[in-house]
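Suppose a colleague, Dr. K., hands you the sequence of a protein chain of 641 amino acids and asks what its three-dimensional shape might be. Before reaching for any lab equipment, you can write down a predicted structure in token form. Begin with the sequence itself:
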Amino acid sequence: MGESAVGSLTATLARLAQGLPAAKSATLKSTIKHWMQRDTSYANYYAGLGLYDIANLKAIAADSSVTPEPEQIQTHVFASMDRALHSYAGYSFNLSMFSNRISSFEYGNGENLTGWFTGVGATWLYNNELTQFDGNYWPTVNMRRLPGITTDGSGSGTPANFGSFPNTQTWVGGSEVDKLHASAGMQFSLSKVTGSTLAGKKSWFMFGNKIIALGSGISNTDGRTVETIVENRKLNAAGSNALTINGSAMPTTMDWSATTSGVQWAHLAGSVSGSDIGYYFPTAASVNGLRETRTGSWQAINTGQSSAQVSNRFLSLALSHGAGPTNASYAYVLLPNLTAAQTASYAASPTVTVLENSTEAHAVKDSAYGVVGVNFWNDASKTVSDGAAAYITSNRKASVTAIEAQNELHIGVSDPTQKNTGTINLEIQRAAWQVISADANVTVTQMSPTIKLAINVNGAAGKSFAMKLALAQNQTLTAVADAYVINGASAANNYGAANVLVTKNDGVGYFRQSYLRFDLSSITGTVSNARVMMTPTSLGAVAGMANQIQLVPANTWGESTLNWSNQPAATTLLGSWTLGAAGTPVWLDITAQVNSALAGDKLLSLLLSSPTNYGADGWVNYGSRENTNAAYRPALVITTH
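The predicted structure, expressed as tokens, is then:
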């Protein structure tokens, strides 16, 4: 290491530590000591260094007051670099993307002749096999089949000297939450890189001890065969690392290749302890495996280097999309450091669920961490569901990562396009009772019955904005009694069995108003919000009609006996609304009245009426508790914590 770039960096930092203030010097020395102890890839750590640097480093190593810093567990999306880093216990994962802002690679002065795909979604997994990307890796790996990329093998000739090879798409970036989990994505086109028509959408969800990769919309029109490279790993000198697929050992002979269908999981043994990798396929896949010896020279990738031939052995796993695919997709999960038995166990009981893998959104959930990641690809209202229930909606292109744990919801949101000069509006099908913290650009516009957020991303340059909310529980009560009453000749009639509740302010014989009662005895916890919901099923042809709700102190009226003549009196006006279209629910906040009722007999009666005479067409029919459509029945949504 002494003569390597890393050795030079360590020695330079050790020099810097000598002149820093005590606290900063101690932090830097802690980092240096950690590096020196972890890097076991060199027989002599000090080889090639000068005496001053050797003395500095040995002093740090021998100083018992310097405690090596712990292994870093952190995740970052570097929006201005189109890069992402995910470090977890025992490994680090790096992601290289490109955009209209960042070239896919750079070639100049004869260096990096074949770097076409190094920034097109290439992934680098670092674990205890410290020499994986050393030992002539670069001149021997297939540069058109790097791990993580979706490739058609294009890219030939000598690239333009110091030219730019940009993406034509702007959706490139991601979001992070608590510096622990992140969602990254890239919409890509190779038209300005290799001249290929290959395009698609790719995502990586970096959640703790796993990385979930999704792809959709993968297509080309030039007939090239397309594949996504799940893995392309350098093997030990003999090339004998064991590959297991669905519990069966694959041949270890070189030049082996096979396509295995129905693959649920695979496992590749590492070359040293702690470097195994597991692979899980949420939908059983057809996987192409290849064990090969590859030979090349440094001169082939850098004209100023040696022409001597060097060799390495590699194992690759790929998902084929065929020739000229249209809207192809894929999904796989990397499980770093898992043994074959652990991988098999995970595949039998996975914690990852792919919520959506379409050209509208990529979304995954990991129940092990309570984390959900969503990449919204379009500027259109889009809802992603968790099972049959809606979970999150965005109105703009966005990346969202959310954790639900210990009654809190932590969210990270970004505009990966860096083009949005306005806001991203999100709605999450959860309830909250308190904002714990929120970045200045985040406005919480509603906390119950759903959470609504507005994130100002103007000029944010892809930054991930954070907010934390204290979660609450929504308890929905249906009315235990309801009925409408009519004056005049029908004053003695009861309409408690009707499937509607009616309001109309009109002359004698036509005046209608409705009563409803809720039983609050099942409510537990502290009520932070309560809203009554009524849904008009039909209404007269009068624009802008208003209806209102009043408190009814008496709770002894009977649904089957109530009529105009015996109706209880209403008192406090609780609120009103203007009617919209039939089928559109109306909401009214009655938190104070619910808390008051909870302190009393736990019953709440309400009067629904029209304060204005709109004439013959001034009627509104709301769904009653007897309505055949459950969505039209009156409800009281109470948020507690």
